[in-house]
Amino acid sequence: MRLHILGPAFGCPSIDAQCNAAVALVKQEASKQGKKWELVCAVDNFEDLPFLEDEERLYHGFSSIARHLRDEQLPAEYAATEAFIESNGRTLLDVSLYVSYENYAAKTRPSFSYILPWYSNYFIPPERRAAARRRTVHLGITGIDMDDVHESVLDQPENMSAAERRFDEETKSRARTLLGRRHTVKSMLRSSAAAGAFKLKNLADNFYEPLVDLLGGKKYLTSDTELSRVDCLAYGYLSLLLYPKVPQAWAAEIMRKEYPSLVQYIDRVRDEVQLQVRDEVAQNMLRDTRKDDTILPWISVVRPAMLRQLTSCGHALLRQTPLAPQSSPMVAEDKSHARSTIHDLLPHAASLTIGTLFLGGCLLYRQGIWPQGEQVHFFGKKRLADYGAAGSALAVLSGFSSQVNSREPRPAQQELPGQAIVDVEVVQ
């Protein structure tokens, strides 16, 4: 078996929650069944991560991998728990790692630079952040890093006129200059860490509290003896909320202070399945030819061919244009809907067309078929000056003769068809 995932980060096997859950599930099932398996840090084909290769067949997504490895009917309550974890856990991860610009710029974006090829770093992290912002737009969270994000709403009523607003702003600025800036309760609540924790406290409680109630006094979520696929999925999301050392660690702080049993549960799953990844392995994922890691069976990363790199760049550029039918499947809001045939073929067709036109133009230029250094377009009839130095001399003479002839009455001449009479005045 060979599992393809997005690379490691924050001490976890992957920076993606679904990939984390897939690693935990595959590692546990491989040890039970005595199968040999390999772990691959994907450098392309990001569309359907994670996916498992087993017996020349591919299984995309955590649910498909779980159904393949555990051929059993999932009870309804377990299916509901998985849906709850995916929905609420993804929202918290979106806000913590992507919507918060301070966390994104300080930790999330640099972590991608270790596990992605250089060209993918220009597309994948911004796409994931844009998708996270779209998924959380209904929460009214656009930027939790601004200290005065609600100042206009709290201090200025809607019926305040423009003059009153200017007077109010000038009064505040003068008062701050004279009295200095004091730390009030309102200003402390507007600090970046406090504002994020205050706004998302209820959201975190709605995710953590049901899991603690489900855990109860048991060792795992569903039983007291065996790790289930629900536990693997819960670990995939909760580990990325607990372990990353981000500047605004409100999600981890709430979990440690108010839900210590949940922290112990995550640590227990990680230690039992042995899922911890050293920082050196993550930082050298694309550099080393061999991964000296005894916990997870990493294999050497195979660099994609140049054509594959160009195709990936073409797909990413196409997704930024209005021609793209939908977002990248790796960052799509809903992965349950199957992509249609035209959605699959349109990026390939566009990339092939662009590549063909580019190669054709290069070939024409190299073969000399395309004109080089010549005047291609002529507008109107040619003048004598267009024929070099001799033409310029003739143009001067014709202009001089036309001036002489203009002083005498010009006899009627019979104009030949197609002949143009041009009067040129030469200014000395």
TrEMBL record:
* Keywords, alphabetical: Membrane, Mitochondrion, Mitochondrion outer membrane, Protein transport, Transport
Q: Which residues form the Metaxin glutathione S-transferase domain?
A: 208-269
Intracellular or extracellular location(s): Mitochondrion outer membrane
**Recorded superkingdom:** Eukaryota
Q: Read off the SUPFAM superfamilies from this record.
A: GST C-terminal domain-like
Single GO biological process annotation from the record: mitochondrion organization
Where this protein primarily resides, as one coarse class?
A: mitochondrion
Q: Does the keyword Cytoplasm apply?
A: no
Q: Does the keyword Membrane apply?
A: yes
GO cellular component annotations of the record: SAM complex
For the Mitochondrial outer membrane transport complex Sam37/metaxin N-terminal domain, which residue ranges apply?
19-129
Give the UniProt family note: Belongs to the metaxin family.
In Swiss-Prot or TrEMBL terms, this protein is called Uncharacterized protein
Q: What is the lineage of its organism?
A: Eukaryota, Fungi, Dikarya, Ascomycota, Pezizomycotina
